[in-house]
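Case study.
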Amino acid sequence: MVISKAIRDQIEAENANYPRARGGLLAALHRVQREYGAITPEHATALAPIFDMTAVEVLAVVSFYDMLSSQPAGRHQVRVCTNLSCSLAGAREFLREIENHLGITRGETSADGRITLGHEACLGACANAPMMRVDDRYYEDLDTESARQVLDALD
Amino acid sequence: MATAAGVACEAEIVRITVDGLEYRLHAGPSLLAALDQIGVLMGEVDIPHYCWHAKLSSDGSCRLCQVEIDGQTGLQTACNTPVRDGMIVHTRSEAVVRARQTVLEFLMLNHPLDCPVCDQAGECKLQDYAWRYGAPNSRSREPRRKLEKRIDLGPGVVLDRERCILCRRCVRFCREIPRTGELAVFGRGDRSVIGLFPGVQLDNAYSMNVVDLCPVGALTSRDFRCKARAWQLESVEGVCGGCARGCNIWLDVAKGEVQRYRPRRNDAVNDTWMCDAGRLSYAEIARSDRLDKAWIRNQESVLEPVSVASAISEAARMLAGLVAEKGAGVIAGIASPHATNEDLFAFKRLLDEIGTENSGLAVPHGEADELLICAEKAANATGARAIGFEDARSLLERIRGGGVDGIVILGHDILTAGYLDDETLLGKIDSVILIDTHQSSLMRVAQVVLPARHLAEKAGTLTNCDRRVQRVRPALAADSELLTEGEIVHRLALALGLNGFEAGYDLPRVSRSLAAAVPPFAGITIESLPSDGAQLVSDGGEKGAVR
Ligand code: SF4
Ligand code: SF4
Ligand code: FES
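After joint prediction, the assembly is written out as follows.
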């Protein structure tokens, strides 16, 4: 089973709270991505009937959102916010330095399968830019050095 | 067919004003749908649109259909604004003109403008509307997006992502009509593209309709690509002969050949669709196995080519000899469900005047579906039955019993499942006269072979599965040695000296006699038939023989 029974049960229970069958899709996509690192075509096929959609529609939704990915990804999702206020506070240079440090560019996964790097907008932490999200955790008021420490500590 | 718009019958009638002219139409549907229902959209009322289509759900994504409505702030999209009584609509106000220009300017920002090499040029709504409603110059200094120019979506359809204006008609078609849902929009904003699920193809029985639906050259037919330019084509109204539905089509002709079939809208038959198999069946017209000359079997038992006139005299000589020797009861006829009502009526009269009751009809069968495709794989089996041809199986029994010495066969449908596996049985008959459009193994047992015109080469009418009589016109000029089945049997009747066949085959006269002689056809003549057809008079009168 591409999606475990436990996860599937959770998704179905949560979807019951929405008035329309497709209402809970985004929450489910986040859950699958968290669990499996990506929402692959196989995941989309498994999810589609729960939401009364076709698999291609599910995949199209995935493609709409930057924070969702259909490509198999690393164990950790690292996202630097590059929206306007973060960019004014140097987020773009910051992102480039992280790319240099990891030896990959945005959208790529490190060779050891540890980290998938990306950028995102807007994570709502403008006051504390530059910032990045590692999976579900925010790291704010970063500089290159503090970011390196966080990244190097990831398993 | 039942359509979303079909609910309008019970809806109340309202009056609205568009650019100062008053219209009475059904409340309920959108302004565009209501104007389309009364047949004025893009005629008297000019509201350009991309995403809206009469037979699909409305999307409201292209924003081109904006109009001004008195009492409402801002412009409204006509494709999803319901009609209300007393509505006053303006389609030519300054605000509307400006809005259209803006929408078109945005659509053009990323459009590759490769019209010189684009198949759609000449029938492209982006060209047409940009010309009619767009601003004369581009203000953009930005580079255009670069995308894939040739993606094979499936066996019939090719996608050019640069040309796509994201109207989503193709996406909605696949979800709503064949309900296969292969396509979707991937990505967001100016990175949106049309795409498929990985590993899946756009491959359903109706897939090529997306080519007609696509307002631009983003979706093209793999079969038609680069074959002809739109302005070289002459379009002739016709009917597909692929199955009993009789989908209404355009036959697009250039360089003396049919280049493609396209569906022609008829809400009572095929809406705006046709199946892929029917669409591609035009290829049979010029196929290498077309019969293009007459043949007679000579002393050495070999078929040799002769003129049509001598083949007809030879056929008449054989039939007359048999009748004189053994009586009319040894003569039989097999009708073709591909022939027109007029051809079949002439054939029925030939058999009646010879004085034989031995006749039959063989109809090839295949898969059917719930949309258009019918199990009967010929356009006029219903017409043949209405004219009095019954299933050929009992005739075959008679032939097996040795009761038939001469037979006139239209087409080779008798060589189909349920009838004959091969021509062996017919080989027992002394005189086999074959009249057909294409070669078949029946030629091995025929003494006389006569070539007949294809549906694309003749005028006549066909009766579809719902008993609707529809007209075909010649899209191609046929050579003088190529006659219709009707004219061939008429000449045969003249050569036999039969009663009631006047010199010279006159199709309108045959059609009038058919209307007079066969009750279900009462009042239906080729000259009075509207371009969307007419229903046979009574239901179930299929065994009604010629009076
Ligand atoms: S491919 Fe054609 S029909 Fe489909 S969205 Fe693009 S422009 Fe519209
Ligand atoms: S459904 Fe039948 S009549 Fe219509 S296009 Fe297909 S084969 Fe032709
Ligand atoms: S036709 Fe109305 S928005 Fe496209």
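Observations recorded in class. The longest helix of chain A spans residues 25-36. Chain A has a mean pLDDT of 93. We will return to this complex in the next lecture.
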